[in-house]
## 1
Amino acid sequence: MRRMRRRLSVPVFLVAIALVAAACGSGGGGGSSKAVVIGASLPLTGDFAQPGEASKRGYTIWQNMVNASGGLLGRQVNLKVVDDASDQNRVASDYNRLISQDKVDLVLGSFSSLLNIPASAVAERAGMTFLCPSCGSPQMFNRKFTHVFFAKPAVASHQADQFAQYVAGLPAEERPKTAAYPTQDDPFAQPVIDSVARQLATIGIRNVYSKVYPATTTNFDGIASDIKASHADMVVQGAVFEDGVGLLKSLVRADYNPKVMFQTSAPSNGAQYLKAIGGAGNANGVFYPVSWSPDTNYPLNQEFVQQYQAKYGGSPEEDAADAFATAEVLQAAVEAVGSVSDQDRIAQWLHNNKVQTILGPLSWDETGAPQQSFILAQWQSGQSKVVLPREIANSDTIIFPKSGWAGAAGQG
């Protein structure tokens, strides 16, 4: 090489450029100046736009923090995020393009099992490790995939275990006797409700109303009227966001206030949820499961909250925290393996190790399903409070029975 350079009399600055170019084109190890490109398709428009945007914010905060601390394996991280418009066909096409045409180094998942089921199939066929922040449906884990991981504490069927245990632990004379179980036709929400109904049936709570409604449902007055007619003591709803808001507003208009109300994802959307339902008073006493709390002292959690507030203002949504934790898991595996290109070793490492995240420690079984448990939260006087488990709770009280509605919630 030295003789060739002398013979051709290549100027020194051109040699330097060639060396930089060679370094940029090298593979997955550290020391390269080429950025690590991570692709993701998120629902930035359509039915899941609100949590999709929150997920993007979580990924972005992680990118900013990791780049500020030196990057991933010494390389800066570039996120390539595209909009799947909440469409199952489009999300599959997006990941095909990100992997096959754009040649991204790594991928992160979308929001909701509905989108992550087809997206993860694309990644699995390509041999790419696929970490998703919202994919707890049992359908994610019965396909014998080896590169798919859910970066939350538990799958859908165990999301509400803390709630079911709380109800079961109430004194028999105070415990609700009947329950209504409306749920969106969603691969994550529906298994949560099915699991709660089974658990509560074992302690004698009768199912007096059950309905699976389409994701396109916008008017919940009929469902609210049916629940009122059932005289259900407790309403347990599998709600994504708009449907959770819609049913609560319809219950307010119907002037029906159950003793206990539990919703899945909807109440975790913080200020957006409170505003949409007509104010904090209408949320008082509503239970919901969460993967994350801004008050815990897990590593980087307070830094995440501060960075989010500085960039976006307000408190982070749970979906933003879940996305941040998903990227944390990917980072831990890549750094442990020392490569962004050895996808098999990245996946194998995750199957065999536990990762510390802002959600707490996460680990996975052979299917990629997590093996921890969710937190039970409750809205109390406009504040989101962790009530169970007691060791991490930030409220000494649990509101029971639920407070009355505060006032009109508007139409829609």
## 2
Amino acid sequence: MHWKIVRTLEEFALLKEPWNELLACSASHVPFLRHEYLATWWKTLGGGEWPQGEMLVATAYRDDGSLAGAAPLFHTINRDQQKAFMFIGSIEISDYLDLVVCQDDLPEFIRELLRLLNQETIPGWEVLDFYNILDTSPTLPALRQAVQDLGWQIQEEPLQHCPYIPLPGDWETYLAGIDKKQRHEIRRKMRRAEEWANGWSEPVRWYFVEDSASLSQEMDDFMNLMAQDPDKEKFLTPAMRTQMQLAARAAFDNGWMQLAFLAVGSTKNAGYLNFDYQGHIWVYNSGIDYNARELSPGWVLLGHLLKWSNENQRSTFDFMRGDEEYKYRFGGIDRRVVRLKISRS
């Protein structure tokens, strides 16, 4: 492999096509590793999560000039106040992160990457601090072996739970596979929404945002729903709102954004911002109007999204990070992301 280091966003922009082609065969083919997502993250350093960072994207090429692998890294001071290389996308707003490399090339790529990062020409570091790797990723055993071969140290820490639902492709079959009480509740709440009266002058409807021109306003409305939750209101700083607008626009323009609302007339009562990518639905965030609790708008919209996903042959409904009870009541199967912390002594 022949290596090149990318240090600026302008250089990184030239990699979009080969990067996304390589991602298609990568062991972790997730939307957070799409080139356009990582580029938007870098523009705001994760919505202001990191006050500073130096890009160092390590790319490896085959003899024929094709991209063989990429490590989307940046150099910063980590949460433990150590000089560190971390994944671009770390930590809070990118649920799954990893290297971008085909599985067959992974062991060789990792061995050469670690040797590259050990060179004197690379900015000094104390740790490689890799967050949000799925516990099923083949990167984990490959990194463990390469670190052991070098005589370095590695620590592995389990992080958040990440429940997901394998979808059978049929709504009734899905419902039959979950707890009877939960199945009854889903049906009851969705039916009640269809019959909703109780002072509202207009019927309940749900829809996807499909108009490019209205996306910015729709995202503002979505974030205003999010902000009804005090924790999410604190999370949505001006920089984070900018980041979410950029990420949504990038996903929309590249055909993998799914922004859905439940509304009574023109009043939005619940929203889900998802990624519809590679036959999977990746649930990124949600917002609820707490003044419409009687309608159970979050549950109703989630039910419609699961029904749509089954009817449209999506294979997986991934709730991503967070172990909220409702995710398991809807049939979530557990897994986790991990943090790997690698040092040279």
